[in-house]
Amino acid sequence: MTFTDEVKSAVTARAALLVVGVLALQLLFIASYVGALHRPAPTDVPFGVVAPQQVSGQLVTQLGDLPGGPLDPRAVADEGEARRQIQNREIDGALIVSPAGTTDTVLVASGGGTVLATSLTKIIKEAEAPRQRTVRAEDVAPASPDDFDGLSSFYLVVGWCVGGYLCASILAISAGTKPANRQRAVIRTAVMALYSIAGGIGGAVIIGPVLGALPGSVWALAGLGALTVFAVGTITLALEALTGIVGIGLAVLLVVIAGNPSAGGAFPLPMLPDFWRAIGPALPPGAGTWVARSIAYFKGNAVTGPLLVLSAWAVVGTALTLLLSMRGRATDGTRASADAAGGSHPG
């Protein structure tokens, strides 16, 4: 056997294509994570301004014209309204100008991301310094002392996502990468649902009562976890049913390579470049991280949109998995009919 024959025997054409695919995923991983996280800077951060009417417009314009455009300021009626908007996650911070003294207050919410809260405080102090104003910071939605940099919610969701696509991958490759019939697809989907419930409850219990890393309702987090795991798992099953083993790589591309750096975990969305900021809320890691933080620190506010995103992934994944299994069943039936016809007319 020649060396060329040995190479062909050791690395088949199919294996070579898969290796090229893995190389592509590796390079995309590097490009995505470094591209999203190598130079975080706040841009167009929704920010409220509460100030006397005679200076409010001028101050909003001044903050909007800061170099690099870190803030997207808007006038807010009063301090109570500013606090309400922060709790509802409509804005990420607010400047409260004192009409009587020279000390103003910047309201931040480290529960939405410690790095962003620190950046907002620094920006406002620098902007106020030329006006001879002193600024004090007040955290209206503080992150837990056991939640370093507000990262626990992100890591929790990452764990749920990893569990979802790993479980789906195991279910699919254990008996072939494509569901042979509808019954097998239904069984796999049902197992995925049971696994999702267990994973959601387990993750919520670990991060809450066991480690004390996140406050908030354990059952609300458990429900979020079940939906997140199921959404990722079913879309992985669907991709595998559609493309075979390549579907595992596509799931990694969707969830890990595109989803994790754009989730707003290490750096909140306003600190990410435009591309990652745009795709993050539409992918399971980003939607899950937003809801987990809302449950933990923002009284469960502003979760409808992200929950609909996760639900959409779950519904689409389930529907595609079942529909593709029916296609496979029809193909098997056609082959069986052809075989029977061939058998009845021997050559």
Notable characteristics:
single chain, 5 strands
Give your account of this protein's structure.
The protein is an alpha/beta fold. The protein is 64% helix and 8% strand. It is built from twelve helices and five strands. It has helices at 3-10, 13-37, 53-64, 79-87, 114-128, 152-173, 182-210, 218-243, 246-259, 274-279, 284-297, 304-344, and strands spanning 45-50, 71-75, 93-96, 103-108, 134-139. The protein has a five-stranded mixed beta sheet, sandwiched between helices. It starts with a helix and ends with a helix. 43% of the residues are buried. Mean pLDDT is 90; it is low at 330-347.
List the helices and strands and how they pair.
Layout: H1 3-10, H2 13-37, E1 45-50, H3 53-64, E2 71-75, H4 79-87, E3 93-96, E4 103-108, H5 114-128, E5 134-139, H6 152-173, H7 182-210, H8 218-243, H9 246-259, H10 274-279, H11 284-297, H12 304-344
**Helix percentage range:** 55-70%
Quick one: how many beta strands? 5
Main sheet overview: 5 strands, mixed
Please work out how many helical segments DSSP would assign: 12
Helices and strands, in N-to-C order? HHEHEHEEHEHHHHHHH
Poorly predicted ranges: 330-347
Q: Helix- and strand-based class?
A: alpha/beta
Mean pLDDT: 90
C-alpha Rg (nearest Å): 26 Å
Label the overall shape. elongated
| Strands in their spatial order, largest beta sheet | 2-1-3-4-5
SS strand fraction: 5-15%
The first-to-last residue Cα distance is 39 Å
Précis, in short:
With 347 residues, the protein is of the alpha/beta class. It is 64% helix and 8% strand.
